[in-house]
Amino acid sequence: MTSRRYRLVTAKLYLYLPIKISRIIILGLLSCIVLSGCVLRTLTINSEPSGAKVYLDDELIGETPVTTTFTYYGTRKIIVEKTDHEGRLLYERKIIYEKIKPPFYQIVPLDFFSELILPIKLKDEHHFAYQLEPLKQRPKEEVQKEVMENAEELRERLKTPVIR
């Protein structure tokens, strides 16, 4: 009698066990989705004087001070320039290659936990400030001479026939 009862209990346990395990797995996946964390990465660029245009990887992102989000770490090309309302440069254009390093929790394999498992929101903020130098004004005669030389060079190019 006990062996039959044992077999019956064992059979019920084997039928019940996969259902319980699948429920635990589904519950675990749902909790990961609902409670998952994320990392908000921001890049803030400021300049002196403010109001300079900022390009990140050759795309205009705004005027300083400006904050933008980013996805990937690595070396980023930042261009900062201050122009007047007609588009003429007022300050020297700065072209900078900044290396944005990830924090320790964004290095493989820890990034899996910080992005998907931890139920907290993490912030990774990077701040850069740049000093723009005033544009050096060249003498008018020097500029006129350069323009005339360029014009003569172009005139000579037009005189020579193009051979194809």
Short account of what is shown:
The protein is of the alpha+beta class. It contains 3 helices and 7 strands.
List the helices and strands and how they pair.
Elements (H helix, E strand, L loop, with lengths): L1 H34 L2 E11 L4 E4 L2 E5 L2 E4 L4 E8 L12 E7 L9 H8 L3 E11 L8 H20 L5
Parallel strand pairs: 1-7
Antiparallel strand pairs: 1-4, 2-3, 2-5, 5-6
Give structural notes:
It is built from three helices and seven strands. By secondary structure, it is of the alpha+beta class. It folds into two domains: 1-35; 37-146, Immunoglobulin-like. The strands form two sheets. It has a four-stranded antiparallel sheet with strand order 3-2-5-6, with no helix packed on it. The protein is elongated and about 110 Å long. 6% of the residues are buried.
List keywords for this structure.
alpha+beta, 164 residues, Immunoglobulin-like, 2 domains, elongated
Q: Give a short account of the largest sheet.
A: 4 strands, antiparallel
Q: The CATH topology of the largest domain is what? A: Immunoglobulin-like
Q: How many DSSP H or I helices?
A: 3
* Oligomeric state of the chains in view: single chain
Question: What's the SSE pattern?
Answer: HEEEEEEHEH
Radius of gyration, whole Å: 32 Å
Mean pLDDT: 81
